[in-house]
Amino acid sequence: MASQKVDLKVVLLGKEYGGKTSLVERFLYSRFNSTIPYQNTIGAAFGAKSMTVQGKSVTLGLWDTAGSERYEAMSRIYYRGAKAAVVCFDLTDRSSWERAKFWVDEVRLHEPTCKVYLCGTKLDLVDEKNRPIDYYDTKDFAELANLKSFETSSKTGENIDELFNQIVSDYLDLQPATLNMKHENRGHHINKLTQNNLQVLVDQDIVKIEQKTQDDKCCF
User: Fold this and answer.
1) Is 159 within the bounds of a domain?
2) Its family (predicted)?
3) I need a surface site. Which of 48, 128, 150, 194 has the fewest CB within 10 A?
């Protein structure tokens, strides 16, 4: 597999079945699987995509983490060193929103320099006249916590590009004016993963990936 650099590590966090995997699938591959239910992620799945924002090319490395509470400790491995965290919650599930607030606090405690974004998912399923999670509850929380928030639909693609464009723009705004994204020493070297080999990582596989990419200085 060809070597690729990750300039911006992004981790997705949130309750299981909260729409994280669908969000990644839509962003990376412009697809939505409406026929086969997604399996609960074990460990984390990884994918990468390059974007051009403000005239600069930035490669994002996305870590889609397990949402189950029993994998909380493992999730901390993946958001270590992340520049951005997307905390996802299902707009049709109140418990998913309560869990999102936990993840916001968790990231800020363990990775205080990581920029956090709130992302409501499954917007296409929301009945505006009877929302399980009030729009202003999330907006008020985001404002008090100084977070940018988005409501997205992986089915329609609504606001997904806007979310990741905002993440990259904020990242670039924090870089020196002389930043050269093509500099050979910038970024984490990783092996390029395509839509056909997006991997679900469990403990044993993490070891294998480190061994396979040792020469590429893989890190996460």
Assistant:
1) yes
2) Belongs to the small GTPase superfamily. Rab family.
3) 128
pLDDT in tens, 95-129: 999 999 999 999 999 999 999 999 999 999 999 88
User: For the packed helices 72-79 and 94-110, what is the interaxial angle rounded to 10 degrees?
Assistant: 50
Q: Which of 194, 196, 203 lies closest to 42 in space, CA to CA?
A: 203
Compute CA distances 15 → 70, 88, 91, 120, 178, whole Å: 11, 8, 12, 12, 39
CATH number at residue 43: 3.40.50.300
Residue 186 lies in a domain: no
Tokens of 77: 């491995």
Q: What are the tens digits of pLDDT across the range 195-209?
A: 344 443 333 333 333
| Among 40, 43, 108, 114, residue whose Cα is nearest residue 84 | 114
Domain extent at residue 128 = 8-174
Phi/psi region, residue 87 (left: phi>0; alpha: psi -120 to 50; beta: rest), is beta
Q: Strand 56-65 relative to strand 44-53: parallel, antiparallel, unpaired?
A: antiparallel
Measured from the Cβ of residue 84, the count of other Cβ atoms closer than 10 Å reads 23
Please state, for a pLDDT cut of 90, what percent of the chain lies above it. 58
Give me the number of domains the chain comprises: 1
- Angle, nearest 10°, between helix axes 135-144 and 94-110? 10
Assigned domain for 131 exists: yes
Q: Is residue 219 part of a domain?
A: no
Is the predicted pLDDT of residue 34 greater than 80, yes or no? Answer: no
What number is the average pLDDT over the span 129-157? 95
